[in-house]
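Archive maintenance. Older records in this collection stored only the sequence; we are now back-filling the structure field for every entry so that each record is complete. The fields below show one back-filled record exactly as it appears after the update. Entries are processed alphabetically, and MADS-box protein is next in the queue.

ARCHIVE ENTRY
Title: MADS-box protein
Organism field: Brassica rapa subsp. trilocularis
Length field: 213
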Amino acid sequence: MVRGKIEIKKIENVTSRQVTFSKRRSGLFKKAHELSVLCDAQVAAIVFSQNGRLYEFSSSEMEKTIERYGDFSNEYFVLGRPQVQPYLEELKKEMDIMVKKIDLLEVQQRKLMGQGLGSCSVAELQEIDIQIEKSLRIVRSRKAELYADQLGKLKEMEIKVLDERRRLREKEIRERLLRPLLPVTLHTEKGEPEGGYRTKHSSEVETDLFIGL
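Back-filled structure field:
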């Protein structure tokens, strides 16, 4: 049978929790031993149970492993802490540069909106004028593109409407031509009835017209 996945959360049942702790602890120490043997690594594991009991494994003497860990920590963490300060200062400089750039962009935006122009020189005003003209050309070009697209869509709709009207008119004409003629009795000058046909609209009107061979 395939083992199902176990949800990683605290086991509420005390007995099941103790059994799982014992099994997992043994498996952890077994894996640590295999790692130390296969890779010739110095491995140490320290585990405290919920009741405060100590369980440990070390591929060599635990004291030497802890001492080596302390030396490593002092060398790379305690002595390395001053190296963090230059990094933070560099980040602060970059942040100051970004803030200044944002301020300049805000000032430039206000000038383009016609605000704060009192301190601008003639050259700055000319440059602002050129930028505004470029922006206007871009906006007008985009506006013309949108108008052209809308005009094209309207023309397509007009063509469809005209086609539909033409189709309906042709359909109406065909229906009129194919409309059946009703037989009627026509009267001659002497009042004698003769065979003939008339349409529905002329069913109540006498006529001398004779339709036939």
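Update note: The longest strand covers residues 182-187. Helices lie at 14-39, 62-78, 84-112, 122-177.
Entry marked complete.
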